[in-house]
Design a protein that fits this description.
Elements lengths: L3 H25 L3 E4 L6 E3 H17 L4 E4 L3 E3 L5 E9 L1 H6 L5 E8 L8 E9 L4 E6 L4 E3 L2 E2 L10 E5 L8 H11 L3 E5 L4 H9 L5 E5 L3 H13 L3 E3 L10 E5 L1 H12 L2
Helix pairs in contact: 1-2, 5-6
The structure holds D-MYO-inositol-1-phosphate (IPD).
Length: about 260
């Protein structure tokens, strides 16, 4: 029987190896492999290579577990555990030479659906920034050796992060959401990697974060980091499965943001 700690340590080991590969490939030059949902939604050769490395390591170490990856899809397992992987979150940053990209690996229990799974361990590793965020169930969130705690906004308002989907048709709606939350914001950041946004909420760097349309691999590890740092995650419109809204922050800020996003 593998402990939760062992699963976290395995996720850390693989994320560091994968992150190093991504960083090395970035230095050698980025090759675009394809576009996905729109011209802005790109995949690089490195995304595929890094996911293949992670998958191969997991097959060798945990042959009975399931897998859900951004680039290679889902494969059910028989152990009840599934590894949810974004090999390079922040691919546009990666391709454009911004250092804000990361490897995101989570291991979850139960159905591989965000509403149905129970988080077991999560790791977000940003190789070009040299930062490793980790969490295990009931064990808190950590940046290296430092325990993390979500922040409470100061008198100037909340420092918020957000993101915009790759489909230009959705930008007007996303900007309308920004307009609704700005009265409680001191400022807004668009970092370009949702897993890092969530890790920054866990670390109290951002007070809160909201984005529509994120995929399970974008949020699996980061949501766990937020919850284990005393924060909350909400999905105000569960019926909208294709462009579901994710809201993160302290429980009080999440309640405030959800109200504003819904237009209450
Ligand atoms: C993207 C990033 C980005 C977010 C997009 C995601 P990818 O993930 O997290 O910040 O705005 O919605 O798809 O494509 O770089 O793995």
């Amino acid at each position: 029987m593998t402990s939760v700690r062992d699963l976290r340590l395995l996720a850390v080991e693989i994320a560091q190896e994968a992150g190093e590969l991504a960083r090395r490939r970035r230095e050698e030059g980025v090759a675009l492999a394809a576009t996905k949902s729109s011209l802005a939604d790109i995949v690089t050769e490195a995304d595929r290579e890094v996911e293949a490395l992670i998958r191969a390591r997991l097959v060798a170490e945990r042959p009975g577990d399931g897998f859900l990856g951004e680039e290679s899809g889902a494969e059910p397992g028989e152990s009840g555990l599934t590894w949810v992987v974004d090999p390079i979150d922040g691919t546009v940053n990666y391709a454009s030479g911004f250092p804000s990209y990361c490897v995101s690996i989570a291991v979850v229990e139960g159905e591989p659906e965000p509403e149905l799974w129970t988080e077991v361990a999560g790791v977000v590793f940003a190789p070009a920034l040299g930062e490793l965020f980790t969490a295990e169930r009931g064990g808190g969130s950590w940046l290296g050796e430092k325990r993390l705690q979500v922040s409470t906004p100061g008198a100037a308002g909340a420092l918020l992060g957000t993101g915009f989907g790759y489909d230009p048709a959705t930008h007007d709606g996303d900007l309308a959401t920004v307009r609704r939350v700005m009265p409680v914001a001191r400022d807004l950041r668009r970092i370009g990697a949702a897993a890092l946004d969530l890790a920054y909420v866990a670390a109290g760097r951002l007070d809160g974060f909201f984005e529509r349309g994120l995929k399970p691999w974008d949020v699996a590890a980061g949501s766990m980091l937020v919850r284990e740092a005393g924060g909350a995650i909400a999905h105000p419109d569960p019926a909208d499965v294709t462009r579901r809204m994710t809201v993160a922050g302290s429980p009080a800020l999440v309640a405030e943001l959800v109200g504003r996003i819904r237009g209450d």
